[in-house]
What does this fold into?
Amino acid sequence: MKPKCIMHIPWKLLGESVSATEIRPAKMRQAFEDIGYEVYYIMGDAATRKAKISNLRRLLDRGESFDFLYSESSTLPMMLTQNHHLPTHPFVDSALFSLAKRHNIPIGLFYRDIHWAFPEINRFGKLKHWISYVFHQWEVLIYNRSIFAFFFPLEDRDKVYSRLKLLDKSIPFYALYSGSEMLPSKYNKNEDYFVYIGGIRPDLYDMTVVLKAFGRLSNLKLKICVPQQSWVEWHHYYKPFLRPNIEVVHLVNEAAQELLSKAKYALNYFPNSAYRNFVIPYKIFEFMSHNLPVLCNRNDVAGALVQQLGSGFTLNYGEDQLYAWLMNLPGDDEYMQMRTHIAEIKSAHTWQSRAKQVRDTLKALRTDN
It folds into this structure.
């Protein structure tokens, strides 16, 4: 009989997106199944989650056993993830944590993003931002009462504690990065383009410097893959910097992966900021799946990790710095050596290895061992 675990996502997945918020939970669920687990999956709107939790309570009362509960936080407070963003079911998810704790099921939480703790990042306007901030703080207190271990996409716990001041420092803290897949290389020298995939909101993902540098080099092709709604919202901001060698596309799922698989370089090149010192993006390891070298700002934590892994190139941030690097691209031998290196190291960073890390960490925290 397969061992069982519980996975909890406090929102409804869209199914089509290039966002890590949508993709990562699906990858982790599949990874738990790949390492042999039957996953009891709690995901959806509040009513759906409530029904799943009620059924879980019946299973536990009947004597069903689960090795652990793995939860991923939303970019919104879990109480506000309904489509209308009103706290109509504020205790649904905390009831799940209490239920698991009563049955001695160790609970691990992957805390996705702490952008809400940076005052300079304001997604909603002042009033909504303040309301969201209050609910985020409440959420941290709920976690403190129930969580056995916190997982963050960052190794430096002191940095996290400096922003999440209410976080209980006695709860174990572990770095848990995104994963890679063992995909074959499709790179062909004839598909000689650079690619960026993700958001373009200027206070989080400002692409101005990238567009300016490529605008000076008409012989280099840049493809930017962004959600269509984001492009509608921010097109006016970037329009002055668009040139014929810069193409904007709106691809998801397999089409987005095909775009990455044939690119020569990926970009994760953003301005210096306090926030960028707290972010190891999902895409750093997604690029690795395709043996795709990534270009990063060497002064943020993503750049430091890429340098440590040898999975790309790093340089200081600025239009002239990027232009100079693009004018003197690595030679074919150096480039292909890097692709070979990425192919060799990615087996240590698969989604299955991340799932095993969660399993081993949480099972070791069971009090009935």
Observations:
- The chain has a mean pLDDT of 92.
- The longest strand covers residues 4-9.
- The chain is about 40% helix and 15% strand.
